[in-house]
Amino acid sequence: MGTKCKKCGQYEAEEDPTTGTVVCTNCGAISEENQIVSSIQFTENAGGSSIIGTFHSADGLNNSVNHIGSRNHREVTLRKAKESICRLCAELRLPKQHEDEAYNYYRLALNKSFTRGRRAEQVYASCVYLSCRLNPRQNELMLLDFSQVLKVNVYILGKTFLKLSQELNITPHMLDPVFYIHRFAHQLGFGDSGTKNKEVMETSNRIVQRMNRDWMTEGRRPAGICGAAFVIAARMHGFRCNIEDITKVFKIGPNTIRKRLHEFGATPSAKLTIDEFNRIDLESEFDPPSFIKAQEEAAKKFDNEEIDRQVTEAEALIPEIDQAMTEDQKKGAKRKRRPKKASGDAEEVPSDPELQM
Hints:
The chain is mostly helical.
């Protein structure tokens, strides 16, 4: 008994394995065509034997056996991308899951012509990093690790990654600096077994969580946040940890750490003692640093505007002051021009004959 026909409902449909179609012998309707089968069949012709149909591999790439001498450029590009992505994941010690996800992202990027005008290794790294960003709990890799492996500028690689995520309409998860505490602790030497080292890690984790609650981690690189947290935690537990030592491990500038320390110093948590910081969890949230900076700039702008207004008013009074000074000078000149009486022109006093001697 054949399969059921979708049009007439009779069980007269038969499958033709040579063409991969299902035809109903009752009504002649073609129910299915171009079916993918697991068997391989050959046919004889004047040029020799050839495969019937088209081979489709598990990775979606067609075999070039049917097209000897005319290899598809897209297939070559995808195979090269697959090998390069697998090699990059092996160097970064990533599981198989990231290889498959990064390869699928590359295929989408290739369909959107995203690879044109861009270096292939940057696109490979962006696809792998996108897979890591969508699964942040499974790894502790940063974009800086990809740039060190590929010997590419991290800012150029980051620009390619951002454009790739926008082109694919994928929003990566926000980076949580807490995930990188354990990694940076091992690089700084605090990952060894010991009570003090464990306390430094716990304090750093607590500081990062407090920074996250105070809106300090929004839009900031996790290296700067973790670097400032380790500087504070190490000094709280009596370790000598300079900013220069942090910059060598975290690959960031010293001004970045100083800015994070200055921002944390303005929060209420920085005004607590060490015991209070370890025991008390402040429920209130502090204003974001960008909001505070905007307020300071607005206040500074208001002060400048007030100063400019006062200067404008003073400049408007200058002509009046000059006019008043000119009038005073004229009045003084008139006083000087009045004739003075001579000393010999004294008024004659009438003589009294009785007073004459």
